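Reviewers of the previous submission asked for a worked example of the structure-prediction workflow described in the proposal, so we include one complete record here. The input consisted solely of the amino acid sequence. No template or homolog information was supplied to the procedure at any stage.
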Amino acid sequence: MLIIGKITGTHGLKGDLKVLPLTDFPERYNNMKEVFVGNEQNYQKLEVESVKKHKSFYLFKFKTHDDIDKAKVLKNTFLLINEEDAVELPEDTFFIHDVIGLDVYLKNGEFLGKLKEVFQTGSNDVYVVAGENGEKLIPALKDIVKIDLVNKKMLVDDMPGLLSEAEEV
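From that input alone, the workflow returned the following structure tokens.
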């Protein structure tokens, strides 16, 4: 299951729920007929009655939750979808959950560690690689990083100042 939103609270008295998008594709909400609600281990399928954009949130109304008392039990749960229902990504673009745990190597074969986390900064993502020498931050730029999901590894093209010391001029 993939998390695509978090229910943060109710809105009004008729069962509308405020959903914080946790997806790069929130437009998918507009065509949803049903969605799983809960967490990755315990969830239920709910029919979507309506979805409306509201400020930085989306307002979801589920057919079975038609008043505030029924709706508020869903607060702090997540919207989930089956992985096979995920949006198809462009070539050389990956879901975060697919790259976490990859073995990270320099192009010369030196092992840097495992990809532990991805920070989304707005301009480009930043990979956090944890290894014997601590954590390294690597910008997720196609000129620097090549990802091989088949072999579960990432190759990094080291540049002066990125991971190694910059040369003095």
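Residues 68-71 form the longest helix (4 residues). We consider this example representative of the routine output the project will generate in years two and three.
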